[in-house]
Structures are given as C-alpha cells and as structure tokens.
Amino acid sequence: QKVFRAPPAQPIKTQTMSPPWIALGVSALVLFVSFLAQLGVFTWPTVSVEDVKPKQVIYKYYTGGMKMVGPAFKALSALIGKNCDHNARMVGVYYDDPEKTPEDKTRWAVGVMEEDLDASAKECLLKAGYKTFLLQGSKTVEAKWKFIPQLGFLSILLMVHRCYPALEKYIKTNKLHSGNAMEFYHGYKKNSFGIGFIPVDVRFALKDRNTWAVPEVLASK
Fold this sequence. Notes:
Elements: H1 20-39, E1 47-52, E2 55-63, H2 69-83, E3 90-94, E4 107-113, H3 119-127, E5 131-135, E6 138-147, H4 153-173, E7 178-185, E8 189-190, E9 196-206, H5 215-219
Antiparallel strand pairs: 1-6, 2-4, 2-5, 3-4, 3-7, 6-9, 7-9, 8-9
Helix pairs in contact: 2-3
C-alpha cells in the first residue's frame, strides 16, 4: 500500500518595505549635512605663506572693542552701496590682540580698495571722514575662508574660531614672527547650492610690527 506524503510546506515570502518617512528622513539628513558643509561647519582652513602686493585703500580708523567692527563694516557697505558696485573688495586691519588689550585701547581700521570705486564713491567716502592709505606689500601667513553674509554673526564666529587658531598654530610650529592682522574680503559669489558667500583671506604680516599701520596707529605709539 502506497503512502502518500504531503509535500513540505514552503515558507511564504513577504516583502518588507521601510516606511516612506524613513527614506525622506535620510534624504533630509543628507541634504542638511551637505548644507552645513557648504557653510564651512566641517571645514578647517589651509594655511600658507603668501606675498601680498601693495594696495591703495580708502579707510577709517577706530578704537574700541571687536563688537564695533561689524557695524563699521555695515556703515562702509551702506556708503558703497549707494555709489558703486557691491562687489568692491573690503579690508579690516587689526593692530592689537583683543584678548590682551582693553577695549578702549584696541585699534583697528576698515576700508575698501580704491581701484574698485568710481569718482563719486571716493568723494562720498572722503566727505564721510574716510582717508586714503597705501597698504604696503608684505610676506604674510594666510588662511582662506568663505564668509556667508546670510548667517551674519554665526559666520563671523566660525571664521574667527577656525582661521585664527590655525594661523597661530602655523606661526608657532614654524617659529615665525607675526605682526598685524588683516581680513581681506573679496567680491560676492555663489556656490553650487546657490548660497551666497564672500571669499576671505585672513592674514598675519610677518616680521615688521608696523606693516599696514595707518598714520593714526603710528601717532598713538
């Protein structure tokens, strides 16, 4: 007598699908991290020694804490915006270490490249109390950064806390003698995400403490 045996049961294959919100969340996270990377959150500047050519600037001299620098640049930008292209290159020069110098004795200047201005813009700035000065050429130690205007103070903090420590480490490691500091702001650009930024060269002059010293600084010694 034949015995009939039922075939073994086959496991039922089921397809598991991740909820759509997981894929969306991962995509959003990737985009967010990419956005932060574009802002420079994960970036450390490359430091190098560069030769800077002399540039004629129109500047204004100040004394006071670093919290006054932002408004000084805004005032300069407002005057420039009324009279010429917003892509005029600007510069800040700093003559004292703000961590070691009282606020009322901290000296600095902000200015704009004279060659980027037309006659009416120059006249406007000179009437507003700005002066002309030749920033002499110098060998410098330099770090490059991208300033994001839309982030305002946060972008400044990123630049300060990334560029200056990197420069100081390079100077100490290579046993260099540094002088005054400079932030050189190039024209406005956009990256692949459409985010506007301004390339910045953060520099220390090497050797001579009087490099980039405007007349007011020399007179205050």
